[in-house]
Amino acid sequence: MTDAVMGATPLVMPLVMENLREVAIAPDQLPWQPLRPGVEICSLCQDADGGGHLALLRYQPGATVPRHHHPGYEQIFVLAGEQADERSTYPAGTLVVNPPGSQHQVTSPQGCVVLIFWQQPVVFAP
Predict the structure, then answer these.
(1) Are 48 and 103 in contact (CB under 8 A)?
(2) How far is Cα 61 from Cα 65, in angstroms, rounded to an integer?
(3) 67-114, pLDDT tens digit by residue?
(4) What is the pLDDT of residue 25?
(5) Strand ranges (E), 1-126
(6) 41, 54, 101, 117: which has the fewest C-beta neighbours closer than 10 Å?
(7) pLDDT in tens, 49-66
(8) pTM, full prediction
């Protein structure tokens, strides 16, 4: 694991994570931070202007992220477990690309770990 994992900072060197699926199976070695109830984040890198953000998310069983809007692309790769929204359930190995203007509510009945990239920060409904 590189030092870039320690915070959401712009990269000055390439970020290399070997055996990412293995990291997802044994995620306790990462510096997780609370994001929402039952959801933790491990930020890998973020644009200096607060735009693009690459991170790992870990959902506890039953955790939910409320409905939100994507002003830019969101790309999710499910590494372990399952993630679901109102359109489908996405098992490990699934890539989901949500286009700009899309919205959804996310849950993980059994828990999961995902690699996620937000082109722009998400917007939560008031």
Answers:
(1) no
(2) 12
(3) 999 999 999 999 999 999 999 999 999 999 999 999 999 999 999 999
(4) 66
(5) 33-36, 39-46, 53-59, 63-69, 74-84, 89-91, 95-98, 103-108, 112-118, 123-124
(6) 101
(7) 777 899 999 999 999 999
(8) 0.84
| CATH number where 59 lies | 2.60.120.10
Question: Alpha carbon of 43 to those of 60, 99, 126: distances in Å?
Answer: 17, 22, 25
- Contact (Cβ atoms closer than 8 angstroms) between residue 74 and residue 98: yes
How far from chain centre, in Å, is Cα 119? Answer: 12
Instruction: Please report which residue ranges of the chain form alpha helices under DSSP H.
Output: 20-25
Domains identified in the chain, total number: 1
Q: Which two tokens stand for residue 64?
A: 């939910």
Spatial separation of the C-alpha atoms in residues 110 and 96, rounded to whole Å: 18
Helix, strand or coil for residue 21? helix
What range defines the domain where residue 96 resides? 3-124
Query: How many residues are present in the chain?
Result: 126
Residue 29 has pLDDT above 90, yes or no: no
